[in-house]
Each structure stands twice: as C-alpha cells, then as structure tokens.
Amino acid sequence: MCYGQILESGLRKTRKQTRCDDCKKLIPVGELRARVVGVDDGEFVANNYCLRCEALAKLASVESQGECWVGSVRDQFRDTGHGSWRELRKRLRTTIANMLEKHAASRVIRR
Q1: Which structural domains are found in the chain, ordered by start?
Q2: pTM of the entire structure?
Q3: For 5-57, how does the pLDDT look when each residue is reduced to its tens digit (9 = 90+)?
Q4: Which residues, 6 or more positions from 84, have their beta carbon under 8 angstroms from its beta carbon?
Q5: By CB neighbour count within 10 A (0-12 exposed, 13-18 middle, 19+ buried), where does 37 fall?
C-alpha cells in the first residue's frame, strides 16, 4: 500500500457509523478511526481505517522498507509471512497503544 502525497492523516472520532476501507468492518459512532487524505495518481482520496488496520499498515510499511503493495494490509501479512501470529498480535497491540498515546498527547497540546 502506498499513498501519493498525504495531505492530512491522524486519528479522529467518528460522528457517524463508518466502514473501514481495508477490512470493511463497521466503526461505531464515537470510536477512534484513522483518517488519511491525499492525492494519488492525480485523484483526491480520503480513506478511513479502523485502528487495527492502521496499526497493521504501520507495521507493514516498516517491514517492507517503503515498498508498495497492492491489496489489503491483511493480505500483505498473509502472503509474506511476518513471523508468528502471536508475535504479530503483540507488536500490533504495542503499535495501537503508541498511536493512542500519541493522539492523547496531541489533544493536550491543542487545548
């Protein structure tokens, strides 16, 4: 997965029920989601991701060393076999915790 030029990205609370653009899971009202807005191949794109898919994307981009891939993040992990699932879940929890901590810190600064 690659983006052309990212104009805005960050965690936002949903104001209405939203669907994750990767796994298609419903994200309920009031839950945090990742929002990525940018330009790709000359087209304006705005995507919403659940926290799990956003964390998987962060892990995949680190492990693929910036290489692009086509398809969902879950497919990328399944196809390339990034260690055991237990290890992946542990790293995923850590990544989500770091995202939430960073989001909480940015909210304190804005006030």
Answers
A1: 5-110 (3.30.1740)
A2: 0.66
A3: 778 888 999 999 999 998 899 999 999 999 988 887 788 888 899 988 888 87
A4: none
A5: middle
d(CA 2, CA 78) in angstroms, rounded, equals 18
Classified as helix, coil or strand, 85 is helix
C-beta of residue 35 within 8 angstroms of C-beta of residue 67: no
Tokens 């936002």 correspond to 12
- Percent helix, strand, coil in the chain, to 5, is 40, 25, 30
Largest CA distance in the chain: 43
Judged by DSSP in three states, 51 sits in: helix
